[in-house]
Amino acid sequence: MDLKNELQKIVGAGNVLDSPEILEEYSTDNGIYPPGMPTVVVKAGKSEDVAKVINLANKNSTPVIPVSSGVHFQGCTIPYQGGIVLDLSNLNKILEIDPPNRRVRIEPGVTWGQITDELAKENIRVISPLLPHADRSVITDYLEREAPVVPKYEFAEPLMTYEIVWPNGEVFRTGSASVPGYPDSPAKGTNPAGPGLDFYRLPQGAQGTMGVINWANLKLEYLPKINKIFFMPFEDINAAIEPIYKIPRVHIGQEFFLLNHVDLALILAKQWPDDYDRLSDILPSWTLILTISGPPRRPEERIEYEKEALFDLKKQYFQDMPILEALPGVPGGGRELIHMLRKPWPKEEVYWKNRLSGACQSLFFIARPEDAPSFYEKVVDEAPKYGYPLEDLGVYLQPIEQSRVCHLEFNMFYDPDDPIEREKIRIMNRELAQDLLDMGAIFTRPYGDLADMVYEKATSYTTALKRVKKMFDPNNIMNPGRLCF
Amino acid sequence: MGIPQEAYKAMEDIVGSQYITDDQVIAQAYVGRLGHGKDTGIDLDMNVPPAVIVLPRTTKEVQGILKIAHRYKINYVPASSFWISHCAPKRPDSLLLDLKRMNDLEIDEENMCAICGPGVIFSQLQEEAIKRGMYTTTPGGGSQVSVVANHINWGLSPLNYRNGVPGRRVLGGEWVLPDGELLRIGSMSTTDDPFWGEGPGPDLRGLLRGWIGWFGAMGVVTKLAVKLLPFHDEGLKPVGISPHTTLQFPEKKRIRWYNFVMPTRESLVECMYDIGKAEIAAALTKVPQQWRYIAKAGCREDFWEGWNTDEARNSINNIHICRVMLVGYASEEQLEYEERVLMDIMDSYGAKLGRTRQSDNSWIKNADSATMWMMTGAYTSVQVTVDTVDCGVKGGEGLAREKPAFTPPLMDDYGEPGWFQVSEIGHMGYIEFLQYWDPNPDQENLYKKDEWNYIKVPTLDAEWGMFNAFNIYASPMNLTGKAYGPECRKWFEKVKAEFDPDKLSNDPIPWDVDEYVDKVDWVNKEDYINRDWSKG
C-alpha cells in the first residue's frame, strides 16, 4: 500500500508533507531530547480526517504521533518509531461559547493566545496555567495536567467532556456529551463522568497514546475587573509553607503561587538583560503571590472582606510575614502581574522560561506542600554536582485544590545550541528525578527519561495500564515508545 | 449446594471461623434489608441469599478470598453497607464479602483527605472531619452508608454545590482486581501515600468508576483516600434525643439557611444560574413539595392527610422554593457579603424570603432518604441527570408529562417535575426524578413500575438527548449501552473480558437488567435490541 497516496485521498495532496525539510522540522521539539524522523506529516483540516487517518494507520500498524501546536517542551511529540505525525494545528475552531452554562467547546489546535482574546470580549476566561506559551494548545495543556494558577476551587479540572478518536478509529464522546444527537441536544456536555466508565480520565496524562481529541468542553469563569495583588516575601521556603496551606483554605483569592527570585525576575524583567540582572539581585528569595478579585456583583465589597480575612490570618498565624501591595525596587511594584496572569506570555517576546539561556528543562511533580522544602534542599544539594549554578535555578510552587497538594517545579536553563550543556541538563534532570522519586515525589507526567524509572516503581499500575492500553490500542499505533508502551 | 468445602475451609483459614458462615438464616438477612432498588423487579425476581458470607479485615485477606473464588469459580459479591439492591447476589451459590470490618479511618488534616476502608461510614467520617474544620458530603443514601462505595459509585449530596459529584474526589488507594491481584492507584502506585488521585500516565480511576460505578463487578476497593473540604471553624453542635436530633448552627454568623419562595419555576432556574455565577453559597437546591409534606409528617398517615388535599395538588405548579445555604468560610463578613449578593439576586426575581430553622436535620451529617419510603413503602430514583441546570429541568418536566400513563401503580405526585440543584458552583445542574409505589404484589399492572423504570425512561432519555446517570444500572445495556458514547457497552464488555473473563465478580452486573427484561413478557425486546440508538 502506498501510505502517502492513501493519506492524500483523505486530507488532500497539499496536506500530506514529506519533504526532508518538513520532516526535520517535526523531528524535534523545544526540549532536551534527540530528534526522531517521521515518515510523513499529515495536516488534518477537519475533525473527520482524524478518524480516517487513525483508521488507516491502525489497519497498517503505522505509528501516529498527534501534534496539537508547534510548541512542545518534553519530547513527547518526537517520532522515535517513524510513522505519521498528525498535525492538528488547523483544527483551531472555537466551536461554541456558552456563557450561561459557563463552558466553551474548542478544537485541539485552539491556542491560549486565540482563546484568551476571544473570551475576554465577553468578560469570561478559561483559567490558565502560569503564563502559558501563546501558541500552546489549550486542550493539550489540560490533557497533560498542567496545574491551573487559581487553586480556589474544590476541584482542579477545567476539562469537562470531549470527543475522542480511539486508536481503533472509533469516534466516541465522553461524559454527558455522549448523549445521542450531541451537540444539538439538551445535554450540553458539562458532566465529565461516564458513560459507563470514566473515559475522560484515560487520555489524561497519556501523551497522545490513548487517542486523539477532536474537541473538548472546558469550564469558563468570570474575568475579574477589579483586582488587588499582594506579595509575601520570604528568605526561607520553610516560612512560606504555613501561609500556603492556610490562605486558600478560607476561600480567598484567585491566582496564588510561590516563585523564587529567578523565576519572578524572568517574568517581571522588561529590558533584557539589565532588568533581569537587577531584579534577580533585589527580589526576595521567595515571593508568595496572591490576587484578590471582585466578581461581577459587589466587587469592592468582596475584595474588602477577603483582604480583611487575609490580614486576620496574618495576625493569627504569621505575624512576621509582610504583606506588600508592591514589590520594592520593581517598576510599578510588580502590580502589572495581575494583568499578565490573565493572559498567555506575549507572543512577540521570547517565552519567559527561555529568556535566560534560550531553553529550559522543567522538572515537576506533585507533592504535599509541607514536603516542598525537603525536595528543594535535595535539588540545591545535588545541582552543583552537575556544575549547575544555583543562582540560575528557577523554582515554582503551585498550590492545587485549596493547597491540599502542590505542583512543584524546578526550572533549569540551558543553551539549546550547546550539545554538551544540553546533555548535561538531560543527565541532571534524569538523576534528580530519580532522587526525588525515591523521596516520594509523585510523577504523574513521566516524560522522556523519567518514564522507565517511574513505571519500574509503579509495578501493579504498569501491569494494569498495559492491559488497558492493549484493549484500546491493540496494535500500539498511538505514539509508541512513550510511557510504558 | 453452596460452595465447595475445600474453598470454605481455605477461606476460614484466612479470616478465622468466627468471620465466615454458611448459616442460611443469616444469609437470608443479606437480601431482606436493601435500600435503593428494593421491591423493583430485579430485587424481587433475581436477588437470592448468598451461600456463604465472609467478613475480611485486611486487603491481604480480600486478596486471598478472591484468589480462592477465582480458583473454584465462585461468584462473589462485595458489599459494605448494603444500601443498594446490587449488594445481594443474583446467582445461586454465591459468596458475599461483607466489608464492614474494614473500617480503618485515618484523617490527613494538613492535606485534606481521609483514608478509608470500605467499612467506614459517613457518620464516622463527618464527625471526625468537622472536628478538624473540614467536611465531606453525606449522600442521599444516608449517614450509615459506606464512604468508599459512595465515592466510587454515586453518593450525590445536596452539599455538592461547590464540589461536584463525589467521583471527582476519589484519590489514591488499593483495589483488588477480580482475580485477586492488587492494583495500587493514584499516588499509591509509586508510594504508600494515597493523597493524590492521578497515577503516572493515563488515569486508571477511569476504570474504577463511571457513570455510576461497577457495583462490585470489578473486584474490591479495600482502601481509598477521598478529598475533604474546608469548612468554617466554628463547628456544629448536635442537640436532641435520637431520632429527633439536629445540628445546631453556631451563634456567630458563619452558616445560615435561606428559604425563598420564587414566583415561577423559570425564575427558580434563573436565580440558580445567577447564584452560581456570583460564586456565592455552599448549597443550592429546589425543595420539592413532597419533601415539605414528609418533613411535616410524623408517620405515613400524617403524610397522606396532608398530601390528599387541593392545597398539595396545586402546590406543584404554584409554589417554587429555593433553599440556599451560605457559609462564611473566611469570616462572618464573608457570610454578610454573600447575604447581600443573594438578596440582590432574589430581589431581582421578586422572591420572598420565608422562615427557616437555623439548624441542620438532614444535609450535613444525617442525610436521610429513609423518609422517602414513608409515603408508599417503595421508592427509587429513575432519572438522575447531571449536565446543565436547564437540561435537568427540561428532562424533569418531560418525564412529568409522561408519567401519568404509569400512574398507578406509581404514586400520583401531581406532576412534580423532580428535585434539582446545582453543582460545581453552577457549571453543572442535577435533577433527580423520583417514583414511589405501593409494593403490595396483588396490585393490577404492578409491572408498569418496572416498565417505566427499566425501559420507558431510558428510551425517552436517549430520544431526547438527556444524560441519566442511573441508566447504566437501571436499563438494558442493549439500550443505554448502545445509545451513549455511542456503544459504551462494548468497553464494558472488553474491560470485563480482560479483568474478569470468568465473570465471577458480581455477575451479571451490569447486564442484570438485560437478563431481567429478557425473561418478562411485557417488553418487546426487538424494539430496542435492533434499534439504531446512535440518533436517539
From TrEMBL, chain A:
Pfam family, any one: FAD-oxidase_C
Keyword Transferase on entry: no
GO MF terms, alphabetically ordered: FAD binding; oxidoreductase activity
Record's keyword terms, sorted: FAD, Flavoprotein, Oxidoreductase
Cofactor(s) for this UniProt protein: FAD
Domain FAD-binding PCMH-type intervals: 33-223
Presence of keyword Nucleus: no
PANTHER family: D-LACTATE DEHYDROGENASE
Identification of the protein by name: FAD binding domain protein
Species this protein is from: uncultured Desulfobacterium sp
